[in-house]
Write a structure and sequence with these properties.
Length: about 350
Protein backbone atom coordinates (compact mmCIF):
# COMPACT_ATOMS: atom_id res chain seq x y z
CA UNK A 1 0.00 0.00 0.00
CA UNK A 2 2.88 2.35 0.73
CA UNK A 3 4.20 1.88 -2.79
CA UNK A 4 0.82 2.71 -4.35
CA UNK A 5 0.34 5.79 -2.19
CA UNK A 6 3.82 7.04 -3.13
CA UNK A 7 3.07 6.62 -6.81
CA UNK A 8 -0.25 8.50 -6.49
CA UNK A 9 1.35 11.36 -4.54
CA UNK A 10 4.14 11.61 -7.09
CA UNK A 11 1.68 11.74 -9.98
CA UNK A 12 -0.33 14.45 -8.19
CA UNK A 13 2.83 16.50 -7.60
CA UNK A 14 3.81 16.11 -11.27
CA UNK A 15 0.34 17.20 -12.41
CA UNK A 16 0.41 20.24 -10.13
CA UNK A 17 3.88 21.08 -11.36
CA UNK A 18 2.76 20.82 -14.98
CA UNK A 19 0.19 23.61 -14.55
CA UNK A 20 2.11 25.79 -12.09
CA UNK A 21 4.86 28.02 -13.46
CA UNK A 22 6.91 30.47 -11.41
CA UNK A 23 8.35 33.63 -12.98
CA UNK A 24 10.28 36.50 -11.42
CA UNK A 25 8.22 38.99 -13.45
CA UNK A 26 4.63 38.47 -14.50
CA UNK A 27 3.92 38.19 -18.20
CA UNK A 28 2.01 40.87 -20.11
CA UNK A 29 -1.20 39.42 -21.54
CA UNK A 30 -3.57 40.43 -24.33
CA UNK A 31 -6.21 37.74 -24.25
CA UNK A 32 -8.13 39.27 -27.17
CA UNK A 33 -5.31 38.30 -29.55
CA UNK A 34 -4.03 35.37 -27.41
CA UNK A 35 -0.73 37.17 -26.85
CA UNK A 36 1.71 36.79 -23.95
CA UNK A 37 4.94 38.81 -23.67
CA UNK A 38 7.74 37.49 -21.43
CA UNK A 39 10.12 40.23 -20.21
CA UNK A 40 12.24 37.99 -17.97
CA UNK A 41 15.93 37.64 -18.76
CA UNK A 42 17.19 34.44 -20.36
CA UNK A 43 19.43 31.88 -18.66
CA UNK A 44 22.50 32.20 -20.86
CA UNK A 45 24.25 29.16 -19.43
CA UNK A 46 21.32 26.80 -20.12
CA UNK A 47 20.86 28.43 -23.51
CA UNK A 48 24.47 27.71 -24.49
CA UNK A 49 24.53 24.16 -23.08
CA UNK A 50 21.29 22.90 -24.61
CA UNK A 51 19.52 25.51 -26.72
CA UNK A 52 16.66 23.43 -28.13
CA UNK A 53 15.57 21.96 -24.82
CA UNK A 54 15.77 25.30 -23.02
CA UNK A 55 13.68 27.10 -25.67
CA UNK A 56 11.14 24.27 -25.73
CA UNK A 57 10.65 24.40 -21.94
CA UNK A 58 10.45 28.19 -21.95
CA UNK A 59 7.77 28.15 -24.66
CA UNK A 60 5.82 25.46 -22.84
CA UNK A 61 5.82 27.47 -19.56
CA UNK A 62 4.64 30.67 -21.28
CA UNK A 63 1.85 28.86 -23.13
CA UNK A 64 0.76 27.26 -19.82
CA UNK A 65 0.54 30.69 -18.19
CA UNK A 66 -1.52 31.98 -21.12
CA UNK A 67 -3.93 29.03 -20.85
CA UNK A 68 -4.26 29.57 -17.09
CA UNK A 69 -5.32 33.16 -17.76
CA UNK A 70 -7.83 32.03 -20.39
CA UNK A 71 -9.44 29.56 -18.00
CA UNK A 72 -9.96 32.40 -15.52
CA UNK A 73 -12.42 34.00 -17.94
CA UNK A 74 -16.17 33.25 -17.77
CA UNK A 75 -17.17 30.17 -19.76
CA UNK A 76 -20.38 28.90 -21.29
CA UNK A 77 -21.49 25.63 -22.86
CA UNK A 78 -22.76 25.59 -26.47
CA UNK A 79 -23.69 22.29 -28.13
CA UNK A 80 -21.88 20.20 -25.49
CA UNK A 81 -18.75 22.36 -25.98
CA UNK A 82 -17.17 24.60 -23.37
CA UNK A 83 -16.55 28.07 -24.87
CA UNK A 84 -14.66 31.06 -23.44
CA UNK A 85 -15.61 34.59 -24.48
CA UNK A 86 -12.45 36.59 -25.11
CA UNK A 87 -12.22 40.30 -24.18
CA UNK A 88 -11.57 42.99 -26.87
CA UNK A 89 -8.03 43.09 -28.18
CA UNK A 90 -5.56 45.73 -26.94
CA UNK A 91 -2.55 45.05 -29.16
CA UNK A 92 -2.81 46.32 -32.75
CA UNK A 93 -1.32 43.80 -35.14
CA UNK A 94 0.36 45.27 -38.26
CA UNK A 95 -1.14 44.33 -41.61
CA UNK A 96 0.92 42.59 -44.28
CA UNK A 97 -1.10 44.37 -47.01
CA UNK A 98 -2.93 47.71 -47.13
CA UNK A 99 -6.58 47.93 -46.15
CA UNK A 100 -8.73 47.06 -49.19
CA UNK A 101 -10.56 50.01 -50.69
CA UNK A 102 -14.34 49.88 -51.01
CA UNK A 103 -15.55 48.71 -54.39
CA UNK A 104 -16.79 51.68 -56.50
CA UNK A 105 -20.49 51.76 -57.31
CA UNK A 106 -21.72 51.21 -60.84
CA UNK A 107 -24.09 53.58 -62.63
CA UNK A 108 -27.11 51.50 -61.74
CA UNK A 109 -26.03 51.18 -58.08
CA UNK A 110 -25.59 54.96 -57.84
CA UNK A 111 -29.01 55.51 -59.40
CA UNK A 112 -30.64 52.92 -57.11
CA UNK A 113 -29.03 54.50 -54.06
CA UNK A 114 -30.22 57.95 -55.12
CA UNK A 115 -33.79 56.79 -55.76
CA UNK A 116 -33.93 54.43 -52.80
CA UNK A 117 -34.40 51.29 -54.90
CA UNK A 118 -33.68 48.13 -52.95
CA UNK A 119 -32.54 44.91 -54.57
CA UNK A 120 -35.00 42.06 -54.14
CA UNK A 121 -34.23 38.41 -54.66
CA UNK A 122 -36.01 36.99 -57.69
CA UNK A 123 -37.30 33.48 -58.05
CA UNK A 124 -35.28 31.11 -60.20
CA UNK A 125 -38.36 29.75 -61.98
CA UNK A 126 -41.22 31.45 -63.81
CA UNK A 127 -44.53 29.99 -65.06
CA UNK A 128 -44.87 29.84 -68.86
CA UNK A 129 -48.51 30.12 -69.96
CA UNK A 130 -47.80 28.78 -73.43
CA UNK A 131 -45.86 25.69 -72.35
CA UNK A 132 -47.84 25.24 -69.11
CA UNK A 133 -44.77 24.48 -67.01
CA UNK A 134 -42.14 26.13 -64.84
CA UNK A 135 -39.21 27.49 -66.86
CA UNK A 136 -35.89 28.67 -65.33
CA UNK A 137 -34.93 32.29 -65.88
CA UNK A 138 -31.43 31.38 -67.12
CA UNK A 139 -29.41 28.38 -68.13
CA UNK A 140 -29.57 25.78 -70.87
CA UNK A 141 -33.10 24.75 -69.91
CA UNK A 142 -34.23 28.31 -70.56
CA UNK A 143 -32.81 28.21 -74.09
CA UNK A 144 -34.44 24.83 -74.73
CA UNK A 145 -37.80 26.17 -73.55
CA UNK A 146 -37.48 29.19 -75.88
CA UNK A 147 -36.78 26.93 -78.86
CA UNK A 148 -39.79 24.83 -77.94
CA UNK A 149 -42.03 27.87 -77.59
CA UNK A 150 -40.78 29.91 -80.56
CA UNK A 151 -40.76 27.14 -83.15
CA UNK A 152 -42.37 29.60 -85.57
CA UNK A 153 -41.92 33.39 -85.78
CA UNK A 154 -44.12 36.02 -87.36
CA UNK A 155 -42.59 38.26 -90.03
CA UNK A 156 -43.24 41.95 -89.23
CA UNK A 157 -45.01 44.05 -91.87
CA UNK A 158 -42.08 46.46 -92.19
CA UNK A 159 -39.39 43.73 -92.41
CA UNK A 160 -37.99 42.03 -95.47
CA UNK A 161 -40.05 38.89 -96.17
CA UNK A 162 -36.91 37.03 -97.24
CA UNK A 163 -35.05 37.82 -93.98
CA UNK A 164 -34.36 34.99 -91.56
CA UNK A 165 -36.20 35.96 -88.35
CA UNK A 166 -34.45 33.29 -86.29
CA UNK A 167 -31.05 34.66 -87.30
CA UNK A 168 -32.24 38.20 -86.59
CA UNK A 169 -33.38 37.24 -83.10
CA UNK A 170 -30.09 35.47 -82.39
CA UNK A 171 -28.08 38.46 -83.63
CA UNK A 172 -30.10 40.81 -81.43
CA UNK A 173 -29.43 38.64 -78.40
CA UNK A 174 -25.67 38.65 -79.12
CA UNK A 175 -25.71 42.44 -79.53
CA UNK A 176 -27.42 42.87 -76.18
CA UNK A 177 -24.79 40.73 -74.48
CA UNK A 178 -22.01 42.75 -76.14
CA UNK A 179 -23.70 46.01 -75.14
CA UNK A 180 -23.92 44.93 -71.50
CA UNK A 181 -20.27 43.84 -71.50
CA UNK A 182 -19.22 47.16 -73.05
CA UNK A 183 -21.19 49.10 -70.44
CA UNK A 184 -19.57 47.04 -67.68
CA UNK A 185 -16.09 47.83 -68.99
CA UNK A 186 -16.98 51.52 -69.30
CA UNK A 187 -18.08 51.55 -65.66
CA UNK A 188 -14.80 49.96 -64.58
CA UNK A 189 -12.79 52.50 -66.61
CA UNK A 190 -14.79 55.38 -65.17
CA UNK A 191 -14.29 54.15 -61.61
CA UNK A 192 -10.50 53.86 -62.13
CA UNK A 193 -10.19 57.18 -64.05
CA UNK A 194 -8.99 55.46 -67.23
CA UNK A 195 -9.46 57.28 -70.53
CA UNK A 196 -11.33 55.26 -73.12
CA UNK A 197 -11.19 55.81 -76.92
CA UNK A 198 -13.63 58.42 -78.15
CA UNK A 199 -13.96 57.00 -81.67
CA UNK A 200 -15.49 53.70 -82.64
CA UNK A 201 -18.36 53.67 -80.12
CA UNK A 202 -21.23 55.41 -81.92
CA UNK A 203 -24.21 53.59 -80.52
CA UNK A 204 -26.78 56.15 -79.30
CA UNK A 205 -27.43 54.22 -76.10
CA UNK A 206 -23.80 54.14 -74.93
CA UNK A 207 -22.33 57.24 -76.63
CA UNK A 208 -22.79 60.91 -75.81
CA UNK A 209 -23.26 63.82 -78.22
CA UNK A 210 -19.56 64.69 -77.95
CA UNK A 211 -18.60 61.17 -79.03
CA UNK A 212 -20.89 61.41 -82.06
CA UNK A 213 -19.43 64.82 -83.05
CA UNK A 214 -15.92 63.44 -82.75
CA UNK A 215 -16.79 60.41 -84.88
CA UNK A 216 -18.38 62.59 -87.59
CA UNK A 217 -15.38 64.94 -87.72
CA UNK A 218 -12.88 62.10 -87.97
CA UNK A 219 -14.94 60.27 -90.61
CA UNK A 220 -15.19 63.42 -92.75
CA UNK A 221 -11.40 63.90 -92.67
CA UNK A 222 -10.80 60.35 -93.98
CA UNK A 223 -10.98 61.49 -97.63
CA UNK A 224 -8.14 62.44 -99.99
CA UNK A 225 -8.88 66.15 -99.43
CA UNK A 226 -9.05 65.67 -95.64
CA UNK A 227 -12.72 66.71 -95.62
CA UNK A 228 -12.21 70.06 -97.36
CA UNK A 229 -14.92 69.47 -99.98
CA UNK A 230 -17.29 67.45 -97.81
CA UNK A 231 -20.72 68.92 -97.09
CA UNK A 232 -21.69 69.50 -93.49
CA UNK A 233 -24.90 68.44 -91.86
CA UNK A 234 -27.41 71.14 -90.89
CA UNK A 235 -26.65 72.69 -87.46
CA UNK A 236 -23.49 70.62 -87.20
CA UNK A 237 -20.78 71.74 -84.79
CA UNK A 238 -17.08 71.11 -85.11
CA UNK A 239 -15.66 68.79 -82.49
CA UNK A 240 -12.96 70.22 -80.28
CA UNK A 241 -9.73 68.61 -79.20
CA UNK A 242 -9.51 66.14 -82.08
CA UNK A 243 -6.20 67.29 -83.58
CA UNK A 244 -4.55 64.03 -82.58
CA UNK A 245 -7.24 62.03 -84.37
CA UNK A 246 -7.54 64.07 -87.57
CA UNK A 247 -4.72 63.38 -90.06
CA UNK A 248 -2.85 66.38 -91.44
CA UNK A 249 -4.00 68.81 -88.74
CA UNK A 250 -1.56 71.49 -87.67
CA UNK A 251 -0.18 70.63 -84.31
CA UNK A 252 3.12 71.15 -82.61
CA UNK A 253 5.45 68.24 -82.60
CA UNK A 254 6.73 67.15 -79.25
CA UNK A 255 10.47 67.55 -78.90
CA UNK A 256 12.42 64.39 -78.17
CA UNK A 257 13.56 63.76 -74.64
CA UNK A 258 16.92 65.39 -73.80
CA UNK A 259 19.44 63.66 -71.59
CA UNK A 260 20.82 65.32 -68.45
CA UNK A 261 24.27 65.77 -69.98
CA UNK A 262 22.93 67.54 -73.08
CA UNK A 263 20.76 69.83 -70.98
CA UNK A 264 23.71 70.67 -68.72
CA UNK A 265 25.99 71.48 -71.68
CA UNK A 266 23.31 73.66 -73.25
CA UNK A 267 22.85 75.63 -70.03
CA UNK A 268 26.62 76.09 -69.62
CA UNK A 269 26.89 77.47 -73.15
CA UNK A 270 24.19 80.02 -72.41
CA UNK A 271 25.92 81.09 -69.19
CA UNK A 272 29.30 81.43 -70.96
CA UNK A 273 27.83 83.57 -73.71
CA UNK A 274 26.19 85.89 -71.15
CA UNK A 275 29.11 86.19 -68.73
CA UNK A 276 31.97 86.38 -71.28
CA UNK A 277 33.72 89.81 -71.26
CA UNK A 278 34.76 89.83 -74.91
CA UNK A 279 31.77 90.18 -77.19
CA UNK A 280 31.66 88.23 -80.42
CA UNK A 281 32.67 90.31 -83.51
CA UNK A 282 31.28 89.78 -86.98
CA UNK A 283 34.30 90.58 -89.17
CA UNK A 284 32.37 90.89 -92.44
CA UNK A 285 29.86 93.27 -90.93
CA UNK A 286 32.64 95.41 -89.37
CA UNK A 287 34.55 95.64 -92.69
CA UNK A 288 31.43 96.70 -94.59
CA UNK A 289 30.68 99.38 -92.04
CA UNK A 290 34.28 100.69 -92.21
CA UNK A 291 34.24 100.85 -96.02
CA UNK A 292 30.93 102.69 -95.99
CA UNK A 293 32.07 105.19 -93.32
CA UNK A 294 35.16 106.42 -95.26
CA UNK A 295 33.35 108.34 -98.07
CA UNK A 296 30.91 109.73 -95.54
CA UNK A 297 33.72 111.19 -93.41
CA UNK A 298 35.49 112.60 -96.49
CA UNK A 299 32.36 114.39 -97.67
CA UNK A 300 31.86 115.88 -94.20
CA UNK A 301 35.45 117.21 -94.19
CA UNK A 302 35.00 118.85 -97.63
CA UNK A 303 31.83 120.57 -96.55
CA UNK A 304 33.57 121.97 -93.47
CA UNK A 305 36.58 123.31 -95.45
CA UNK A 306 34.41 125.58 -97.77
CA UNK A 307 33.94 129.22 -96.48
CA UNK A 308 30.46 130.46 -95.82
CA UNK A 309 30.17 133.80 -97.75
CA UNK A 310 26.41 134.00 -97.89
CA UNK A 311 26.16 135.22 -94.34
CA UNK A 312 28.88 137.90 -94.84
CA UNK A 313 27.21 139.41 -97.92
CA UNK A 314 23.97 139.76 -96.12
CA UNK A 315 25.62 141.63 -93.25
CA UNK A 316 27.43 144.07 -95.60
CA UNK A 317 24.27 144.94 -97.47
CA UNK A 318 22.56 145.80 -94.24
CA UNK A 319 25.41 148.22 -93.32
CA UNK A 320 25.49 149.95 -96.79
CA UNK A 321 28.88 148.75 -97.78
CA UNK A 322 29.86 146.82 -100.86
CA UNK A 323 31.47 143.53 -100.41
CA UNK A 324 35.13 143.23 -101.15
CA UNK A 325 36.08 141.64 -104.44
CA UNK A 326 36.95 138.06 -104.27
CA UNK A 327 39.27 136.73 -106.91
CA UNK A 328 38.19 133.20 -106.22
CA UNK A 329 34.61 133.86 -107.34
CA UNK A 330 33.37 132.73 -110.71
CA UNK A 331 33.06 135.58 -113.28
CA UNK A 332 29.80 136.54 -114.89
CA UNK A 333 28.96 135.49 -118.39
CA UNK A 334 29.91 137.90 -121.22
CA UNK A 335 32.93 139.39 -119.55
CA UNK A 336 36.47 138.33 -119.99
CA UNK A 337 38.40 137.69 -116.92
CA UNK A 338 41.99 138.81 -116.10
CA UNK A 339 44.11 141.86 -117.19
CA UNK A 340 43.69 145.64 -116.57
CA UNK A 341 40.84 147.66 -117.89
CA UNK A 342 41.53 150.07 -120.72
CA UNK A 343 40.84 153.78 -120.33
Amino acid sequence: MDVVSNIVEKSLRDAEKSITVHKHLDLQYDLGTLLAVDTNSLDLKSLRDNRNEYLLNLSRDNVQLLLNKIWELPTQQIDETLVVKLPPAKFVLPRARPVPKPKPLTKWEQFAKLKGIKKTKKAKLSWDEQLNKWVPLYGYKRAAAERERDWVLEVPATADPMEDQFLRKKTGRVEKVAKNELQRLRNIAKARNIKIPRVGVTHPDVSSSKDLQTSITVARSATASLGKFQDKLPKEKEARGVNELVPGSNRKRKLPAVSNEQERDHNLQIIDSVLSKRPKINIEKAMARQIHSKPVEQSEENSRSKPNTHGKRKNLKQKGKKPASNNNKVQKKGKKGGGRKRR
